[in-house]
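Researcher: For the annotation table, I need structure tokens for RBR-type E3 ubiquitin transferase. Please keep the output clean. Sequence:
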Amino acid sequence: MTQVQVEDPGLGVSLVASVTANPFHHEDAWWEDEYGGPMYEEKGKGVGLGTEEEDDSLTFDDLFNNLDDVEWKQYDPPVGLQWIAEADPDEVVRVIRDSVNRVRERIAQEQEEELRRVQEAAAELARLEIEQQQQVQQGQTVAADTVITTEQRAPTEPEDVCMKRAAPLPRTSTHRQPYVMPKRSLRKDIPAEIRSILSPDTGAKPKSKRNRSIFSLLWKSHGPDRPETSAAGAARSLLYRTDDVVLDPTLSARPEVKQKVEPVQVECVSCLDDFDSRDMIKAPCHHYCVDCFERLIGTACENEQQWPAKCCLNQIPDETITTVIRGELLEKWRNKGWEWGLPVSDRIYCSEANCSVWCRPHEINRAQNIATCRNRHRTCIICRGAEHGREACPQDRDLAQTNELAEEEGWKRCYGCNAFVEHREACQHMTCRCGAEFCYVCSARWRTCHCTMEQLAAVKAEADRRRMQREVREAEKEAELQEILRQIEEYEREIALKTELLRQEQERIAEERRQKELEQRIQREQARRQEVAIKFSGLREAFERLHDIQRSMVHDMHTQEDEQLTTDNAAKMEDLKERHAQERENLLATVEDKIKLQEAHVESEYAARLSDERQLEAQYTSQLKLYWAGKPNGQEQLESSLKDFQIKMDRGFKAWRKWMDTELATYSWQMREEQTIQSELMANAERRLHEANRATMTAYMQRRAGQLRWVDVVVKERAIMLREMEHAEIHNGGEDIDAWFAEATLSEESVAAATGAPFGSNPESDVARIADNDDEIGVALSPGAN
């Protein structure tokens, strides 16, 4: 391995280049810098070794010594500029915060002004370009008119019509060629044989290979081991196809000029074979051959999760499907469409365990709540179980509620049609609408009992008693509900009253608080004016000490960040390499385990299928024996039927085995492909990490210089703000006395009690008197003053 030391002229960092073999890209190079991280270079892109002198390279000191050249405005100020001590006054805190904000606002204004100037310059440049284009177009129009006039006056020579129309024209000519295809060269549209006949005097040149730019692009996109899409196959076929272009009626009259158009070959997206485009089925996204399309529809009919049939998540139209598939598959597709088109809750399946077929809507009798499948099994559509004969379904909630109401009302059932009958008047002899006659007291057939009118009256009296009890219960529930509502309304009224009283009390307390605060503001005014001069002299001394501390903090922060960034970059690269090594081992073990697990699953499924087929064959044999027992030629028919059944089972098993082998091979290939992809992703992650580390270090160096520039600018801004604050507080810092009385009402009695004289007798001395009587104002504002 060869190592070469290189100086990076852009960053001043020493690089050590070591050319080694990459496990994923054998032509790549790994670079290591003094921070311990690899610097990855792309394939085919060599890294030139620096040959400049060391004096020409930019170092850390050079960068920090030229702070005026750094674009410091794009960086945030250092955190140390906003550090404050716990004992610092509020003015210092406000200046520290506002100084940074004012610098940011000034930077934003400068950027807006610069953007406005750039936009104005761009608009002016666009206007000049438009004027120049208009002048050029006017000049071209004049030149074109001159060329047309000259060509019209040129003498014509007798030439062959074909030669005259097929020969290429000079670029300055404005004549149009007949039948020319748009956006295509006339010379390229003429076949080579015709060009050789029409231009015999042209020097013979070796036929160059056509530029296959489109095919090269498709080849790079897919590669030799990747499947080609239908669109790519069609483009490749059109690229190689020889066009049958006739540019002129005179040329079309010659039979040897015409060429036969070859059929277009289109690739099937499923089997990847090429077929004639006329034999392909066009799905919403791709093309399919007939066999693959039928398999796609068959797979969709096997699992509801894959229904309806789709191509790239786009549903295949029904018209396309019905024009291709035939026979049993078409019938199966239609049945599944009817079945799976209904919600799951609306489907009725046969209750027989060995049947379980879907009952179509026309096989359901809603009046009787019975569904009859195609095998004549009857299912209850309420409980989804077997039918209950003449009995009602136990889960029929409507019938249960009806029976409960009939019990309370004393209704009787007709023994003939099982309908409820209610007695209105007359005797106990009841005649149902079905013609049945029975006794209303005991429900027996008429004239088979000895019930009397007294018993009928007792039955009706009992029914009336139960009806009245039910009405009483309902009335009690309604009264209870009304009482609850009344109590709720009463409670809400009490809560509203208490809330209003509480609000009024809070308003009174707030008014008193505002009155006290207003009086306290009067007391603080004189004290504030006396403290202004002393405060600002102390602020200047405090800012001088603060700036020294903040500069030291910024320097310490930069030193610590430099060391931490270097350590973190090296640790990240080392951790990533170790993690990738472990991931590669785990990935290899996982792939092997998945492949073994898939093979075991195939074997278990094979055993289960073999057991099911044997059991099915035994059942079918027993059924055949029972059917052909005692019949003429029964043994021969039994053996023939059994042999046909075995042939059919063997054919299905072979198809299943072939499909399963294909699935297993595909799964293994996918696992290996996933392993390769993950390995490539790991290599790319290491390269990106190194590039990120290098970019982070460069950004840090520039940000450090910008932050030092920020410190100088902010210190100057604070000095300006301090002067402005002192001037404003001395001249305009006092509170507006008139505004105090506009904001809240201060009673004259309180002012008089605080100053010792009627308020308003001498307005110029009111404030002075308030300031000279702080003790008396404090007594007036005390809780016991009133």
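Researcher: And a one-line annotation?
Model: The radius of gyration is 50 Å.
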